[in-house]
């Protein structure tokens, strides 16, 4: 009983519900291990009692919680002695000097401070004093300035005639400019562009964008080398060498687009790195030097840590736990010496981060100048690689010896372990959510919107102790009010829309809370059915009309794609009609983890999974069940008059499902770019590792021929589909601002 109380006090669940009405108790060993990762000893009855007594003493002595989060009109729930004085120190002094704050009282002092991240000081009559971070957040996230449609694309898969073997930020800017101007698109949603864990001579870079080294900085592999201003000033031998590298890059591009080769991230980076090292020798102009210095000052310690980790990883490999003595601790004397010894190489990595930031800014400017209402939609992965830069630099806010995943449920009895260390909720609060705030601020620098993978992780995450099966994990709760408050504040400052990937197991009330705060959900057509309560893909929730898209976006070794095993979608759960869809969402037909629309309509995805041994039942049964599901949707499309071409026409059916999306009230409609040319291959096939080339495929047409950006722009199939989208959008009242404008950016000085 004492251990259960201790677990509850620290947000550790001692049971979970894999299905409505079924409760599974978490083992004591798991509870002990998870509490230990939170710095709490619960291994014996005596240690449990000591921990409980210590917690009680700390609570009684505490004047302020480590972080206070408030919203306008909602005074914080503080337990303060009568007569305690609160004073607020503004984050930058822009709103005046330190001011008194009396939440809940009458008069000017009762008003919350301006939106921002401040410091609140408390002075009690008994002489105690305390200080805490004060987050003043808006009630809601910014909303799309107009209903709009846009493309969803994995950037690496979008090669052009100028790519160095994979899609880059120059290709992104071109796609945004063209689709905004020619097709009226309002956004382009991307895969995470986070920095990857670098490969070694024996271990290639993990191509999954959802297992990054760092979520705080983008990967320079996405740079367009020729767009770096200093590139044009190369002369003599350096220029000759770069020209040779360009020839080799052209060979990589040709191999991918015309010879059936896979995208080779390491080969691309080897060429770009050498070229960039030559470009770096060109001195920066005075203005460019000043801009670089400003960037260094703005990104501060986070950039310094990322850069020195990158430099050390080049010498010792990325597995920092096995680095020479002292280097595993970023605050050690050994690392301090390394910062001096490797100053030039660390500066190289800072310079790369600056260049990448600049090209991201240019891509967003191209999108907005083309009339896009939102522009770039970046993607935040749910976690980081345990051997990466963030896990090293932020080791105090990650739980050592733990990994996040998913519990066993009706569709995956083994559960999932994603191999990503979780945030420590106590450490986040103790540091005023500084790491989380810095992460969001960096991602939103050049974004009109941010997609948050597994947004339910703002409320709770499934922790799996190292060395144990995913079934031996438990849920750990986070302060959702604080996590959402920080998110709302940073989104407000950036004027950015927030999209939550809320597919799968969702506990009751989470979707409602997210919607109340203005977070758009994600609705995938094939999963939008009127599931009876307790059925469908939601485990503890059982909410109607929401399914599970393969645990969307974890690494390619995970399993559990819903809708692929037959039996996940109940036979009597009919497809939702357009008016039954929620409005506050991004509506799509498919995602990067799911079959393309052409493959879904033709049953090609079942054949692929059969060839790879991934089906859980006989092939004929899987084919039949899949055909029934598709037929139900086609019947609805026909009844609604959205399939005038009649059955049996694959391209017409692809048009029809997109006409359907435009009939829903969804605020955003996403078109999977490979669908526009009939691509049949998924970018990621959950449940596979080496069996399938996850994250390494270029966009291809219906015949499997890779398609370049130039081919896409000229594709009759693409223009036929997008013509239907724009016509249907016009009938549905989808609008966009005039070129160069967007929704008003809120002011940081809005009164709270």
UniProtKB/TrEMBL annotation:
It catalyses: Transfers a segment of a (1->4)-alpha-D-glucan to a new position in an acceptor, which may be glucose or a (1->4)-alpha-D-glucan. It comes from the Bacteria. Residues 92-122, 198-218, 531-574, 728-752 are annotated as: Disordered. Its EC number is 2.4.1.25. GO terms for molecular function: 4-alpha-glucanotransferase activity. InterPro entries: GH, Glyco_hydro_77. This is 4-alpha-glucanotransferase. It comes from Streptomyces lonegramiae.
